[in-house]
Amino acid sequence: MFTKISSKQIFLGNYGWHTGRFHFSFADYNDPENTQFGDLIAFNDFSVLPSSGFDAHPHEELEIITYCLEGQLAHEDNMGNKCVLERGDMQYTCAGSGITHSEMNHSSDKPLRFVQIWIKPNENMLTPYYRSIHFNQRDRLNRLLHIASGQPIKNVTRINQDANVFVSEIESGVQFGIRQLPNRQEYLACLEGSVTINGVPLQTGDAIKTWGERLLSLVAIENCHLVLIEMSRCS
User: Fold this and answer.
1) Is the model's pLDDT at 234 over the cut of 90?
2) Is there a contact between 67 and 227 (Cβ–Cβ < 8 Å)?
3) Which of 136, 144, 172, 212 is deepest in the core (most CB within 10 A)?
4) What domain count does the chain have?
């Protein structure tokens, strides 16, 4: 089964120095019918103007995965971590019992765009943890790059939930299949370009919820960039 969410259905908040597209209830977007999808509780697509950003602010009881699309994202936290993410890089934060971090665009002339995914952890009061990973385009070109998982997998960031996060850049005309396991579901967002999923077209900014399909067939209509979150099927 499929539920397509067009970009026009996704809340757009314009805050002057940044915009945020919130796929689920977040900040000043409040929709009791759209609070989460399984353990996925936030999928936010942020664009930040030069010399702007999110000053130090707290989080707790969250698994936070951030994926950079454009520009440079400067991260700093109260655990002493400092990192700059560029296109295709990701960072993971287990907010656990509580962290404080900032996310800034220090460039004087280039915008920043990044996606932030919040997943509900499987335990409370976990010890906060941070790591960042650099990826080359070839790592995700015409294939699913596994960047986070609740299972111990070599070279994949371990998170505290039964969920998996993949990214992919697919060249126009390329197609491949994704097997969907029983009692699992996926949330897929088209970040750039266009693609069809089992014949359902997605353009930049669209997303789709899927479950109960044996195989997902992806066909890139034009060069596209995707994020896929796979998890246990919600009741």
Assistant:
1) no
2) yes
3) 144
4) 1
Within 10 A of 39 (CB to CB), how many other CB atoms are there? 19
127-176 pLDDT, tens digit each: 999 999 999 999 999 999 999 999 999 999 999 999 999 999 999 999 99
Q: Answer whether 38's CB lies under 8 Å from 26's CB.
A: no
Structure tokens at 148: 């986070």
The model's confidence at residue 235, banded by pLDDT at 50, 70 and 90, is low
Can you give the CATH number for the domain in which 180 is found?
Answer: 2.60.120.10
